[in-house]
Amino acid sequence: MASSLDAHLGSECGDDPLKQEVAETIRNLCGAAIKLRNTIAAGGEGLGQAHGGTNADGDIQKELDVVADKVFIKAAKASPLAFFGSEEQESAVRLKPDARLAMAIDPLDGSSNISTNVSIGTIFSILPVEEAHRANPDIVFTQKGSRQLGAGFFIYGPQLLLVMSMGNGTHVFIFSPSFGGFIELSSSIVIVDKAKEFAINASNYRHWDQPIRSYVDDLLAGSEGPRERDFNMRWVGSLVADCYRILSRGGVFLYPGDGRKGYAKGRLRLMYEANPIAFCVEHAGGKATDGTTPILDLEPKGLHDRTPLVFGSKREVERVARYIADPSALAERSPLFGKRSLFRA
Ligand code: FDP
Ligand code: ZN
């Protein structure tokens, strides 16, 4: 029989008190995710409607964004956390003064999919708190992703899933209503090395830099291009769902910076999107970069920083980096494909 999340967390933590606090936080998040899943499943008018406000980044908030933020802040308050930073709040909130952990969270990922009954999620990142952070909470959310003690995401889809890592593999749990909790679906997930699928919002093609255009051109050229094989494309538009597909069957995801106003570093946020996704991907044997530099090595400047994000099957992510960093890699392409774009045919 598959083991329960509780049993798993117990064996991950042993008698390490800090890990036990991370586990307690994850358990509380699970309770909140089950509540939110029930709210989503019950539907009701208005969940996908505009709430009338904007979040810290100026995005229009949906009713469900606000509900999710409330549900997760309640879970955070019940957890051993000193600080809570949310996509939906301008700055970090102080919780228990002496606690040793901080959490950054995207309470409702994929907002634009709420009203279309497409999978959405919650992404979280748990960081340590040092004494120096207590005087100046702003710096608690400038720690590198490599310092995360635990990270993961929930998917509210056909199933309620938890994908999480505490630095020892990446594990998937499914909510079982009959059991009343989460049970293990996949003990230690491994992303296949070779990608057959890519995920990018291709409507931004004209705004991308040349290396990204060239890379996508070569994928699209398929068996007739320099890659000499065909690729499939998928773009859910909910980071959690695109990430879980890649964890399950490989592939590569790109949200690069582009030429649109405000998109120099893409759309995704470092502390509560890229870092936790990168942590899960890397601990599943994949790779996550901002194009060239590992996401987990980036030095954040604040809670709401953005970063370009490329993640997935290791070899494919490394190939993207060659297109960006090493123009000589473009020599791998035939002269024909160096000049033409299939989108510009
Ligand atoms: P959303 O704004 O709908 O919450 O979190 C940002 C995000 O969704 C990701 O989930 C998703 O990958 C991306 O934005 C989609 O961006 P585009 O609408 O630009 O494709
Ligand atoms: Zn998001």
Automatic annotation (TrEMBL):
GO annotations of cellular component type: cytosol
HAMAP family, sorted: FBPase_class1
Oligomeric and partner information: Homotetramer.
This protein's name: Fructose-1,6-bisphosphatase class 1
Binding residues for Mg(2+) 2: 106, 109, 273
Major localization class: cytoplasm
Gene3D superfamilies xrefs: 3.40.190.80, Fructose-1,6-Bisphosphatase, subunit A, domain 1
Cofactor requirements of the protein: Mg(2+)
Enzyme class: hydrolase
Keywords: Carbohydrate metabolism, Cytoplasm, Hydrolase, Magnesium, Metal-binding
Encoding gene per record: fbp
Family matches, as NCBIfam families: PRK09293.1-4
Pathway listed: Carbohydrate biosynthesis
Catalytic activity: beta-D-fructose 1,6-bisphosphate + H2O = beta-D-fructose 6-phosphate + phosphate
Residues annotated as binding Mg(2+) 1: 87, 106, 108
